[in-house]
Amino acid sequence: MTLFRSLYILYVLARLRLDRNLPAEAKTWKTLPVRLILKLFPVPAESGPESARRALETLGPIFIKFGQLLSTRRDLFTEPMADELQKLQDRVPPFDSAQSRSIIESSLGMSLDETFSRFDATPLASASLAQVHAAELMVAGEPKEVVIKVIRPGAPAIIRRDLRLMYFAARFIEKVWADASRLHPVAIVRDYEETILGELNLAQEADNTKRLRANWHLSGKLYVPAVFDEFTRNNVMVMERIYGVTAGDIEALRRENVNLKKLAHLGVEIFFSQVFEDNFFHADMHPGNVFIDISDPENPTYIALDCAIIGSLTENDKNYLARNLLAFFNRDYDEVARLHIRSGWVPHDTDADRFAAVIRRVCDPFFQKPISEISFGTVLLELFQTARQFDMEVQPQLVLLQKTLINIEGMGRQIYPELDLWETAAPFMERWMKDRMGIKGLLRRLSDNAPRWLDQLPEIPDLVLNTMVEVGELSDSNRRQTRVLMEVQGQLASQARRARFQRLGGLALIGALFSLLLPASGYAAEIDPIIPGSVLGTLGIYWMYIHS
To answer: How many angstroms separate the Cα of 350 from the Cα of each of 317, 328, 388, 458?
Structure first.
């Protein structure tokens, strides 16, 4: 199946002649054999960018997801290519609405006419894993506009098939590429598997949506639609319908005189708040999942959809990232190097000064520039390339955060190219660290842990007594183990001595045998063999008998 799928992927790439999209610098002698083979296929009537988008759609959900990520990086592509990739956000070809109706009725156990007062057969939007239909639901006797999200038929089987191919490719890379152990390709695929399979479970997405809504409900910065639990299953979810402008529709935002600078800075603030304050961040923030409420153009706010992919970090990860970001903001590359070494991301014997110098060379151009002139993706790529000499490892648990950061960068470029990320991020991180490490942060942590400590307080005497008993038992066990170890060492030494003397005894017996045989052969007839032969034989027998 993996071989067939691999051949099919190559066939699609060739049939649509995606070599037309190769940049000039990629058309070298190294790619010449592949380009010659592709030229055997006729050129489609559609343009190269259209073929690229159609290839991703043909290859299925995982490839569409990849195209969605690329669509946020307009700095990497021509305008026609970026426009085609943008269509992957919500204009994936829909599946038959009759299938939607059948899935919804089967999952809810009731007919659509019984459940909804209106159902639009034409999909409102269609994406790689699901499509959405508008409908109307009666709530407390009043009609309520809702949307119904339905998982695409066959998507789970297709995704699992492509995941097997990704695992095959990752294991192959680990075998043939020396640097693969540093990048952990199998672990990255495993994390991606968990993420994308989570997208297939709409009940889990509903839980994520409700939690994100609770975190931001009264903020006035980010709105998350309400979910109707009674009409939500693993493959069907019903939530309130929202109205707004997609984050990718910059022309509409400009027409309405939306304050784009304020909107861009608000997006950065929301991202860092989700990561560091809530530890619950929307990890699929491409423009198709983010709408803008422009009812007050001077104070626009965000609307978040599709909460299937949610990320969180451990406390250690958060602290490590915060300290690194602050060090980056302050251009303290020596501290960045020390943090990398202490965290174990690079070997502990790494030359900190040399590592800091490399980080300085890569990151210094990143500062004091508008976002239109810099690229997170470029910086990450350069860091990975220069890190090879230091054996720096990619951390799979942070890959989702890196992907989200790239999405945020892509939207920031579209909304407000002059955005200075540090203008918003640096003050936020400084406040967060001060609040966390200062007196207020200490008191809050004490307050948070106090109920648990009070609950465990009556058990402390027993815990102390049990610990003392265990320490005593451990000491006795250590003494017994030490005594046994000394006995074993003595036995090993005695066996070694025995083996040594037995080897000497054997050599002595061989010497005695030669003493008796050599004169008979005529080589040393003038030597009386009795005395040396007897001595060597006696010693050999003695050593072998005594040390047997």
So the answer is: 21, 19, 12, 47
Residues paired with residue 143 on neighbouring β-strands, in sequence order: 138
Mean residue pLDDT of the chain comes to 78
Indicate whether 527 pLDDT > 60: no
Specify the length of the chain in residues: 548
Residues 168 and 98 sit within 8 Å (Cβ to Cβ): no
Q: Which pTM was predicted?
A: 0.67
Active site members = 284
By the 10 Å C-beta count (0-12 exposed, 13-18 middle, 19+ buried), 4 is classed as exposed
191's CB contacts (< 8 A; 6+ apart) are: 396, 397, 399, 400
pLDDT in tens, 34-65: 677 777 778 887 888 888 888 888 887 777 87
Is 72:407 a contact under the CB 8 Å cutoff? yes
Please list, in sequence order, all residues whose beta carbon lies within 8 angstroms of the beta carbon of residue 322, skipping any fewer than 6 positions away. 276, 429, 432, 433, 436
DSSP state of 156: H
- Residues with Cβ within 8 Å of 216's Cβ and at least 6 positions away in sequence, in order, are 222, 223, 224, 270
In degrees and rounded to multiples of 5, residue 369 shows phi and psi of -130, 150
What's the count of helices (H) and strands (E) in the chain, helices before strands? Answer: 22, 11
- Give the Cα separation of 53 and 88 in Å (integer): 7
- What distance in Å separates the CA atoms of residue 40 and residue 30, rounded to the nearest whole number? 18
Residue 156 is encoded by which pair of tokens? 């789970």
* Cα separation, 381 vs 356, whole angstroms: 17
Q: Tens digit of pLDDT for each residue in 538-548?
A: 655 555 555 55
